[in-house]
C-alpha cells in the first residue's frame, strides 16, 4: 500500500492511499505563496483503475430476490423478484421531444407504469407494483398534488403512490439481497454515497455534468456542477475528522504519528437556489443541458447541509469559485 508522509516540527502525519493509487515521484509542487490557511502543495497520483460503487439503479437485476428496507429505521418494507427491470426515459425526455420532433408529443401527459413483477428505473427512483404485503409496512398520506408513501414504523417519507404503483426514491430505501446482509453506514454516509454514485453513473453514461436538485413538484433547491469523480481527500486538524464520512467528527487528539486514509470523493460546484441567486438560477432552469434530479424536499435540504459541511472542511481559499461554492 502507498502512503504519503508529512513531517512538521515534533510531529509526523501519514495519509494511506487507497489500493491501486500511488504517488508519481517528482510531482510535488509547492505554491509560491503561503495563504492565510497555510501552504498548498499539489501532487500527481497514478490510479491503476478507478471504479465507483454502483447505485441501487445499477444493481437491480432480473430473477434476483431483493429485500427493500427503510433507510431511516431499517424496517423491512417488502420482498420481491423481478421478471423485468427496465429503464425509464430520462428527466429531459419531454423537452427533447418538443425540440427535435416535428409532430406533437404522442406521450404528452401519459405515465409509464410497471406491470406485475416489473421494476422501472428512473434517475432517482424506482417504480414497483403494490401488493398486499405493503399494507403491513407502508402507510399513505394525501398531499396537495401527490399521495406520500411513509414507513409505518418510523413515519419516514419514502416516496409517492399512484393507484397501485409505488415510487421509492433511492435515497430513502436500502436494497439488499437478504435481510441478514449488513449495511454498516450512517444515514449521512448513505445519502452521500447514493448521490455521488448516481452523479458518476449519469455523467459516464450520458455525459451529463450539470444538475438541478429539485423537489418532486419541480422546485429547484440546488444547482450542481460536477467537475470530476476521481478526487481523494484526507483531512487533519486539532480535532481529527473521521475518514469514513466527510462531515462527521470525533474527539480523538493527535498522536505523535497520526494516520488517516484518503477517501474517494466527487468534486462539485454548487449554487443554493435562493432569491439572491435568482438570475443565475433562472438561466440554469432555461438550459436544456441541465439535468433535473427529483428528490423529497427534506432530502434536498439534507444534501444542501451535506455540501455546506463538506465545503467547510476545505481551506477558506478553496471554498468558492466566482459565485459558486
From TrEMBL:
Any one annotated GO CC term: ubiquitin ligase complex
Coiled-coil intervals, chain numbering: none
One Gene Ontology term of the molecular function aspect: ubiquitin conjugating enzyme binding
Domain of life: Eukaryota
EC number per UniProt: 2.3.2.26
Catalytic activity: S-ubiquitinyl-[E2 ubiquitin-conjugating enzyme]-L-cysteine + [acceptor protein]-L-lysine = [E2 ubiquitin-conjugating enzyme]-L-cysteine + N(6)-ubiquitinyl-[acceptor protein]-L-lysine
One Pfam family, short name: HECT_2
Function summary: E3 ubiquitin-protein ligase which accepts ubiquitin from specific E2 ubiquitin-conjugating enzymes, and transfers it to substrates, generally promoting their degradation by the proteasome. Independently of its E3 ubiquitin-protein ligase activity, acts as an inhibitor of CPSF3 endonuclease activity by blocking CPSF3 active site.
Subunit-structure text: Interacts with UBE2C/UbcH10 (E2 ubiquitin-conjugating enzyme). In vitro, interacts with cyclin-B.
Protein name: E3 ubiquitin-protein ligase E3D
Native source species: Astyanax mexicanus
Organism lineage: Eukaryota, Metazoa, Chordata, Craniata, Vertebrata
Amino acid at each position: 500500500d502507498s502512503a504519503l508522509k508529512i513531517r512538521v516540527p515534533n510531529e509526523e502525519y501519514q495519509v494511506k492511499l487507497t489500493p491501486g493509487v500511488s504517488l508519481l515521484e517528482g510531482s510535488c509542487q509547492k505554491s509560491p505563496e503561503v495563504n492565510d490557511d497555510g501552504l498548498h502543495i499539489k501532487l500527481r497520483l497514478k490510479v491503476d483503475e478507478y471504479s465507483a460503487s454502483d447505485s441501487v439503479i445499477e444493481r437491480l437485476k432480473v430473477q434476483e430476490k431483493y429485500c427493500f428496507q427503510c433507510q431511516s429505521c431499517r424496517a423491512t418494507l417488502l420482498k420481491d423478484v423481478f421478471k423485468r427491470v427496465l429503464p425509464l426515459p430520462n428527466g429531459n425526455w419531454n423537452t427533447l421531444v418538443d425540440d427535435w420532433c416535428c409532430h406533437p408529443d404522442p406521450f404528452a401527459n401519459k405515465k409509464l407504469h410497471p406491470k406485475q413483477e416489473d421494476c422501472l428505473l428512473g434517475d432517482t427512483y424506482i417504480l414497483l407494483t403494490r401488493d398486499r404485503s405493503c399494507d403491513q409496512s407502508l402507510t399513505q398520506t394525501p398531499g396537495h398534488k401527490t399521495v406520500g408513501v411513509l414507513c409505518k414504523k418510523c413515519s419516514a417519507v419514502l416516496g409517492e403512490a399512484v393507484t397501485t404503483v409505488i415510487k421509492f426514491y433511492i435515497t430513502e430505501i436500502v436494497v439488499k439481497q437478504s435481510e441478514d446482509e449488513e449495511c454498516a453506514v450512517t444515514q449521512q454516509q448513505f445519502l452521500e454515497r447514493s448521490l455521488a454514485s448516481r452523479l458518476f453513473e449519469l455523467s459516464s453514461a450520458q455525459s451529463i455534468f450539470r444538475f438541478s436538485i429539485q423537489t418532486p413538484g419541480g422546485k429547484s433547491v440546488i444547482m450542481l456542477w460536477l467537475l470530476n469523480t476521481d478526487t481523494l481527500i484526507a483531512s487533519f486538524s486539532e480535532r481529527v475528522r473521521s475518514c469514513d464520512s466527510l462531515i462527521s467528527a470525533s474527539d480523538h487528539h493527535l498522536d505523535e504519528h497520526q494516520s488517516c486514509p484518503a477517501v474517494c470523493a466527487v468534486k462539485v460546484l454548487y449554487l443554493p437556489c435562493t432569491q439572491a441567486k435568482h438570475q443565475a438560477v433562472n438561466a440554469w432552469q432555461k438550459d436544456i443541458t441541465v439535468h433535473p434530479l427529483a428528490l423529497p424536499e427534506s432530502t434536498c435540504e439534507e444534501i444542501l447541509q451535506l455540501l455546506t459541511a463538506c465545503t467547510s472542511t476545505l481551506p477558506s481559499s478553496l471554498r468558492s469559485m466566482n459565485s459558486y461554492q
